[in-house]
Design a protein that fits this description.
The complex is a heterodimer of chains A (159) and B (625). Chain A has eight helices and no strands. Chain A is mostly helical and 159 residues long. Chain A has one domain. Classes of the chains: A mainly alpha (159), B alpha+beta (625). The complex binds flavin-adenine dinucleotide and iron/sulfur cluster (SF4). Flavin-adenine dinucleotide binds next to helix 2, strand 8, helix 10 and helix 15 of chain B.
Chain lengths: 159, 625
């Protein structure tokens, strides 16, 4: 496995925990590679590497223990001054296909990467946002569910 | 226009300037397109001048708009449409809180206040229907007689009965889906045997849940008792054609502008995105009518052509020609100026732009009413969480509403309103569902499956009621121009002064009270809040509300019975300049509680008949001068 490939696998593993969707489902959006490169393009290889390394540590320490995984996600990543906001941005990217500019507080301390502004990486990113299937709806303005479907009770996947 | 029929005849600025057209129309929105189509079909030569881009009317151009919407991080009303410095348009986010006495000149419309107004329109081929929502309600008969019946506002120079058959024609032109059985309330009547072109759009599951709990609820107002009912809303989007239409001849649902893709222009898919753009063209937009007009072979279209001045012969009071600036691209100011001539001139640039153009041409009208009496519906949004999951974010933006309080004796004291039930959740009020995601992730520290559950809990129970409240004509509410505020081409921008009076605010307050009662009855959690820091805030009896714009600009060239009380007559003809027509919702002396487009379409059908008669009766050469 090449270094990049390994990093990408870590990225998917982290995304799985952040979003609650399986790797398979995440890959099904076709956005995985694009989001991985979005991450490295915006915050840089170094910072992206730090995040993925922190994730590897969390994953290894937690093993199959879900409670521990959640605690470590919070203590090592989500509450981490530098990595937390980036992880939250990944959640948003997966759910609505938008990279939001990092918080002002983050930018003051860790710098203002040139590509760090709010943007949608590709038109398909919006369409493939995971928010919509989560709420049993289709992305507004894409993937029309079909005439009259709205008259039926919603079909929301159980979580 | 490769896919369009070969009957279409094209022109360029040079040859257009050498012709004398029967009619020159300013604006290719629904008003201009209907007039162009009607006149073209009757054999008249027509030139449509359109400020915005989009000449090719192709699927590629349409898809580029859809893609621009997908790629926009803000997804505002005008996000599918590129920024155009030569024919700028208002964008909702330009409306910011005003400091007393200080206008906001940062957006396209200069806002003088005192009240901010976040209404918009679109300057592209096809106009604002490119991103309208498509609600197509008729006015009710008493709306035409506000002064006589309620001692408020103004009477129209025509009555509902006169407009009735034109409403039916307009419903065919823009393709309205509704059932007559649902729509005959408050005196609305139909021609014998009438059915709408298409069956009603199925009402959403959310509407059904609300109806089950709300239907029959009683409301007392000014001694009258109203019994509420959740009623399906007539909409200009493709449903199932009514087999009984036109005495059993049936109705062929209008197809998309380009028929390259089978699914285009088909039945509504429930994409919930009618504003700002329907991805499958199930919703009417004026390009449908425009293409028909072009296919007559007698209608020419010149886009990227901003009309800058109307010229009058001071001797005979007739319009001699109009002047335009045609620009090369959306950014640079490179342009060429020119003039065009016609026997009649029709301004169909919308209520704001018609007034702006008249005033920029130094034509305030002998009554001084051009630009005054600007009206727009005052929207009060209220929002709540239903006690159960109702599947928010499915269907078109609204499929039902509550109409009972559109009319009644109470209108001598306070404004009427209707309520729209939103299938798209709290989006309009709070920016849902994006803001919900951000709150869950950033503030509630949710991730993984807990986040998913949070999203369902927060979004799939959302209910928003929009109360669309009547606004009366007030001469102080107006569009003016100011030489200090110009766009890149040097055209003066519209300057807006706007306020709301107690008549409307009493209606707003009543609507807020009613929304509380509705939520109590539904067992819904009321999450409505208004802040004085927001634009649109109005003080009211120690509290206040935030009023949102309705995008239903009207009244700026209102019609009436004499040159003293109005700008145009019942045919939308200028009292001052006999070969000039001002067409669109600017002609409406009242807006009642119906979104304006269906009514303005009906008015344009009346005008088209009248103009055709005039053109036929006037000897060509004499009229041309
Ligand atoms: C978000 C939104 C939702 C809406 N929803 C509804 C609804 O549900 N129901 C409803 O009835 N109405 C609705 N409306 C209102 C509706 O869109 C308008 O009433 C309608 O489009 C007006 O048609 P028009 O042809 O008069 O003007 P427009 O559609 O505004 O067309 C005017 C045209 O003139 C062109 N023009 C302007 N200035 C010049 C110039 N100087 N020279 C040349 N051309 C010029 C413009 O570019 C434009 O193409 C909505 C509007 C908005 C913004
Ligand atoms: S709900 Fe969707 S398919 Fe239907 S008209 Fe609106 S945007 Fe088009």
């Amino acid at each position: 496995m090449s270094g990049d490939r390994a990093e990408f696998e870590k990225f998917l593993g982290l995304s799985e925990v952040l979003t609650g969707f399986t790797k398979f489902r995440l890959q099904g959006t076709g956005q995985g590679a694009l989001y991985f490169s979005t991450l490295t393009d915006v915050v840089g290889q170094g910072t992206a590497g730090e995040l993925l390394q922190a994730w590897s540590g969390v994953a290894a320490a937690a093993g199959q223990d879900e409670g521990k995984l959640e605690r470590l996600m919070r203590s090592e990543i989500l509450s981490h001054e530098k990595l937390g906001p980036i992880a939250r941005n990944l959640i948003k990217l997966w759910f609505v296909g938008t990279w939001y500019q990092l918080p002002a507080a983050w930018r003051e301390v860790f710098g203002t990467p040139e590509r760090d502004r709010s943007f949608v990486p590709a038109a398909s990113s919006y369409v493939e946002g995971l928010l919509w299937p989560t709420i049993g709806a289709n992305p507004t303005g894409a993937k029309g569910p079909g005439y009259g479907t709205w008259a039926d009770p919603p079909n929301i996947p159980k979580v | 226009m490769s896919h369009l029929s070969s009957r279409i005849s094209r022109t360029d600025h040079a040859s257009a300037s050498t012709q004398i057209y029967d009619a020159v129309i300013v604006g290719s929105g629904v008003a201009g397109s209907i007039l162009a189509n009607e006149l073209g079909r009757q054999g008249f030569s027509v030139l449509v001048l359109e400020a915005g881009p989009g000449n090719d009317l192709s699927i590629a151009e349409y898809e580029a708009s859809v893609e621009r919407f997908y790629l926009s991080a803000s997804k505002d009303n005008n996000s599918p449409y590129a920024v155009n410095r030569n024919a700028p348009m208002p964008r909702g986010q330009e409306t910011v809180k005003l400091q007393p006495g200080r206008p906001n000149a940062d957006g396209y419309i200069v806002q003088n206040g005192p009240l901010e107004l976040d209404s918009t329109y679109t300057r592209v081929v096809g106009g604002t229907t490119r991103h309208w929502e498509g609600k197509a309600l008729r006015l009710i008969p008493e709306d035409f007689e506000m002064r006589t019946r309620h001692g408020q506002g103004l009477d129209w120079p025509l009555k509902y009965e006169t407009l009735k058959s034109y409403y039916a024609k307009a419903e065919a032109e823009i393709g309205v889906s509704a059932d007559v059985e649902d729509q005959g309330y408050l005196g609305i009547s139909f021609e014998p045997g009438y059915v709408y072109p298409m069956r009603k759009i199925p009402i959403s599951y959310l509407d059904q849940v609300i109806g089950k709990n709300l239907d029959g609820a009683k409301v007392e107002l000014d001694g009258e008792t109203f019994s509420l009912v959740v009623r399906s809303t007539p909409q200009a989007r493709n449903g199932v054609p009514h087999p009984g239409y036109d005495n059993g001849k049936g109705y062929v649902a209008p197809s998309a502008v380009s028929t390259h893709q089978d699914e285009m222009g088909q039945r509504c898919q429930g994409n919930n995105n009618c504003v700002p753009i329907c991805p499958v063209q199930a919703k009417y937009d004026a390009r449908r009518t425009l293409v028909k007009a072009l296919e007559t072979g007698r209608v020419h279209l010149l886009s990227q052509t901003v009309v800058s001045r109307v010229h009058i012969d001071s001797g005979n009071g007739r319009v001699t020609h109009i002047e335009y600036k045609a620009y090369k691209d959306l950014h640079g100011k490179e342009h060429s100026a020119g003039t065009v001539k016609a026997r009649v001139f029709i301004l169909a640039a919308n209520a704001v732009e018609n007034a702006r153009l008249m005033l920029a041409s130094g034509l305030p009208g002998s009554s001084g009413l051009v630009g005054r009496n600007l009206m727009d519906h005052a929207y009060l949004l209220t929002w709540a969480l239903m006690p159960e999951i109702v599947g928010t974010m499915r269907g078109s933006q609204c499929t039902s509403g509550i109409e009972e309080l559109r009319g009644g004796a109470f209108r001598r004291k306070q404004a009427a309103f209707r309520a729209g039930i939103h299938n798209d959740g709290w989006g309009w009020a709070t920016g849902a569902p994006y803001t919900d995601l951000l709150a869950l992730v950033d503030d509630q520290n949710k991730f993984g499956r807990a986040l998913q559950r949070g999203l369902v809990d927060r979004i799939s129970r959302q209910l928003l009621l929009d109360f669309m409240v009547e606004v009366l004509p007030d001469p102080a509410n107006r569009i003016t121009v100011d030489p200090d505020h110009r766009d890149q081409l040097g055209n003066m921008r519209p300057v807006l002064s706007y306020r709301l009076n107690d008549y409307t605010l009493d209606g707003v307050a009543f609507a807020r009270q009613l929304s509380r009662r509705i939520y109590q009855r539904l067992g819904a959690e009321d999450h409505t809040t208004y802040s004085p820091q927001e634009p649109g805030w109005v003080d009211y009896q120690g509290g206040g509300f935030v009023i949102r714009g309705g995008n239903h600009w009207a009244g700026t060239h209102l019609m009436g019975s004499s040159p003293k009380n109005s700008v145009v007559d019942a045919n939308q003809r200028s009292w001052d300049y006999p070969n000039l027509y001002l067409a669109g919702s600017g002609s409406m002396p009242s807006i009642g509680t119906a979104n304006t487009t269906l009514t303005l379409a009906a008015l344009c059908l009346i005008s088209a008949g009248h103009i055709a008669k005039e053109l036929r009766s006037a000897p060509t050469a004499a009229a041309a001068r």
